[in-house]
Amino acid sequence: MWSRRNLLTGIAGALATGALGGCGFRPLYGRSGVGADLSDTLSQVEIGPVRNTTTDGRDLARLGQQLHNALLDGLSPRGPRGEQIYRLDVTLNEGIASLAVQKSADATRADLSLTSTFTLLDLRTGQHLYTGNSRAVSSFNILNSEFATLMAEKGARDRAIRQLGDDIRLKVAIFLKTNPDKR
User: Taking a C-beta distance cutoff of 8 angstroms, is the pair 121, 89 a contact?
Assistant: First the structure.
C-alpha cells in the first residue's frame, strides 16, 4: 500500500541520486566502462617489505609484518591477478605519548601513533608514481596491572595498523582511479 511518506522518500532518493550524478560523484570501485576495473588494478600492486624506522632502537619487525598483511588484505583480498605492475614501498614509525597524568606523575592514558611514508613505483618503467604519508592514532589505558596494560597497548596497535592499512589503500586507490593514464 502506497503512503504519502513512501512516495516522498522515493522522490527524495531519486533527487539525491540525480544530484550526486550531476556533481561528478563516482563510486571508487565502480566500473568506469574504460580500461580495467580498479580492484583488478589494485591486485597488481606488489607490496615490498615494510621498513621500520625507530629512534629508540625498538624492533618493529612484527608491526611491519602486520601492516604488510593488512595491505595485502586490502589491495588484493582474492590474491594477485595477472602480472605485478606496481610496487608499494612503505616505511613505518611508531610513537607513544602519555596523555593523562595523575598528581603522582603516573600516566593513566596514552596515545599510540603510527606514521608511514609510502611510494608507489611502476615496475615497467621504474618511475615513482605517487608518494604519500599516512598517520593513525589509537589510545589505550595504562592500568595498575602490567599484563592488562600490555593487552590494551596491543589492542591499540592492532587498531592503528588496520586504520593505517585502510588509509594507505584508499590513497593508492584514489591515485590510480584519478590517473588512468598511469594504469
Answer: yes
CA distance 75 to 176: 12
Distance in angstroms (rounded) separating the CA atoms of residues 3 and 16: 20
- Per-residue pLDDT tens over the stretch 122-166: 999 999 999 999 999 999 999 989 999 999 999 999 999 999 999
| DSSP H or E stretch at residue 122 | strand 107-122
CB 153 within 8 A of CB 171: no
Judged on CB neighbours under 10 Å (0-12, 13-18, 19+), 78 is exposed
**In this structure, what DSSP letter does residue 133 have?**
E
pTM over 0.85: no
